[in-house]
């Protein structure tokens, strides 16, 4: 993925995407005013009341996009609510590149669960412990970096689901079900139905295996990590390289063939347009660092030009 030190990120985001967003902020809030807060009361069945991935699934099933952003710096409790008010369908808390522990994002996950916004966590590596603890803390979906094969994807699906669909350990009345009462069997079924899996396609091997990965039951979105993929193709950050664009085509075709969604992390209108033209429906608009930095730079520049 693109990190703050990547040359040109601020210019690309600030120069293309954010001015349009700033101009439509009020309209965006009005368009999303129907998206309220989800509160789980003790007498209302619990788990099913907070399945906010249903909003993402409904959009994808109806042929619409599901748009979100990455959180890499500002893990404040209200960040998910802020993103929801801006119109995001999902938010992802990144544990791969931040060094955060789950304790750092638990308050944000708790607030996000009460909003009509799905909360995903990207874990730092292939480990059942990392997956199960993220889900127990309240993550509603898991993004896994560097998934290169269907066998890897199938194993991660097992970690994410309660028996008989998988081998996730059971604990209820804790964060992931909002400390609510209820029958374990019902909660297991609801959690299995709600959890989303987004394996990342970041190597040529993963591109080649994309259709096999997408065909694994339990995979919802095959998600391109553009910086790692372009790096592993020998052209770091070159998102116009024909080989990179061909890889995007392959992933899009794999998603279509398997009934999954294709996703990507984007920092520019150009990359977003390339993805949308190919049928990508899950797109991350940059991340909190880049969005804040670019918006601040644009605002300061505008003031200085009038000085």
From TrEMBL:
Q: Where is the HpcH/HpaI aldolase/citrate lyase domain?
A: 76-291
Gene3D superfamilies from the UniProt entry: Phosphoenolpyruvate-binding domains (3.20.20.60)
Q: Name one GO molecular function term.
A: aldehyde-lyase activity
Keywords associated with the record: Lyase, Metal-binding
> Any keyword Magnesium?
no
Query: Would you say which domain of life the source belongs to?
Result: Bacteria
One Pfam assignment: HpcH_HpaI
Q: Which GO terms describe its cellular component?
A: cytoplasm
Membrane-spanning parts: none
SUPFAM superfamilies named in the record: Phosphoenolpyruvate/pyruvate domain
Similarity comment: Belongs to the HpcH/HpaI aldolase family.
Query: What name does the UniProt record give this protein?
Result: Aldolase
> Which organism is the protein's source?
Brevibacterium luteolum
């Amino acid at each position: 993925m693109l990190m703050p030190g990547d040359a040109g990120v601020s210019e690309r985001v600030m120069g293309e995407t954010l001015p349009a967003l700033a101009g439509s902020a009020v309209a965006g809030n009005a368009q999303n005013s129907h998206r309220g807060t989800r509160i789980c009361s003790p007498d209302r069945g619990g788990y099913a009341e907070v399945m906010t991935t249903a909003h993402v699934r409904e959009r994808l099933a109806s042929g619409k996009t599901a748009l979100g952003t990455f959180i890499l710096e500002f893990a404040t409790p209200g960040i998910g609510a802020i993103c929801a008010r801006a119109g995001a369908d999902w938010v992802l808390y990144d544990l791969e590149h931040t060094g955060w522990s789950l304790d750092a994002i638990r308050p944000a996950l708790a607030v996000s669960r009460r909003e009509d916004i799905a909360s995903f966590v990207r874990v730092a590596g292939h480990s059942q412990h990392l997956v199960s603890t993220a889900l127990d803390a309240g993550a509603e979906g898991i993004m896994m970096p560097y998934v290169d094969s269907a066998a890897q994807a199938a194993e991660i699906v097992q970690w994410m689901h309660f028996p008989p669909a998988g081998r996730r350990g059971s604990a209820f009345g804790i964060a992931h079900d909002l400390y609510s009462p209820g029958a374990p069997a019902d909660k297991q079924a609801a959690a299995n139905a709600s959890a989303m899996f987004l394996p990342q396609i970041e190597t040529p091997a993963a591109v080649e295996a994309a259709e096999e990965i997408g065909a694994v039951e339990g995979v919802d979105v095959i998600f391109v990590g553009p910086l790692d993929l372009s790096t592993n193709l020998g052209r770091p950050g070159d998102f116009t390289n024909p080989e990179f664009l061909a890889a995007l085509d392959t992933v899009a075709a794999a998603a279509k063939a398997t009934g999954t969604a294709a996703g990507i992390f984007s920092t520019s209108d150009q990359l977003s347009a390339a993805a949308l033209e190919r049928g990508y429906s899950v797109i991350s608009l940059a991340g909190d660092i880049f969005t804040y930095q670019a918006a601040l730079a644009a605002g300061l520049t505008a003031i200085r030009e009038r000085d």
